[in-house]
Amino acid sequence: MIFWMESSMNRTRCAVICDIKKSRRLEEWRSVIHTLRGRLKETNKKFRSDIMLDFRITAGDEFQGVLRSPKNAYDLYLYLKTGLPVKLYCGLGVGEIESSESVAEARGDAFYRARESLELCKRKRRSIMIKSWKSDHDDILNVLFHFIEAFEDSWTNRQREIVNYCRFHPELTYEEIGRHFSVTKQSISQTLKSAGWHALREGEELIRKLLSEYVKL
Fold it and tell me: Is residue 200 in some structural domain?
């Protein structure tokens, strides 16, 4: 549980609501929930400076949290989804948050917008969408999210494994990445090229830039 003294009535708070896709069809549900609880605990530690209200399971297949701003919302989403054995819907909402001691009790425009984004994800079969008071800004981000999702859907398991490793270790050279996977740097280069890594990386950098700009709008 987090208590904060700073004003929560800031229109650039970011509520994040996630739902596990096709949860009713999942076998080994207890194992999934156990893994999810562990990943949420790790997320709360890793993104401590960004988080206003800890991420917690708030319903059987749903979890949510609040960020001080949307700046690192995409990186948090990537961290969550790559550490889970299931696929997610993720709704982001930017706006005000009413003061609360628990994410389960939190209210405000950010939560209403995150809920709308989540429902829109389900209707459009998207994995992540965002909604704020600035619809033209949202539209650009949602198109970028869609493009990246299309990239990801075309990957092999090996491409996904290597791209995700590169996402979280941007400081490493191809040679260092190759050593991690016990392959040559040429093999890493070929895998990343076939996965569209360079275009993907540019798109994700633009996403981060646009998310950071909400505080300036």
Answer: no
Q: Label the pairing between strands 51-59 and 128-131.
A: unpaired
* Pairing mode of beta strands 88-95, 128-131: parallel
Helix H, strand E, coil C: the string for 27-85 is CCHHHHHHHHHHHHHHHHHHCCCCEEEEEEEEECCEEEEEECCCCCHHHHHHHHHHCCC
Above 90 in pLDDT, residue 10? no
> Does the pTM exceed 0.70?
yes
Give the span between the Cα atoms of 207 and 129, in whole angstroms.
12
26 found inside a domain: yes
Which pLDDT tens digit goes with each residue over 68-119? 999 999 999 999 999 998 999 999 999 999 876 667 777 899 999 999 999 9
Which residues face 16 on adjacent strands? 65, 92
DSSP state of 139: H
Same domain assignment for residues 110 and 47: yes
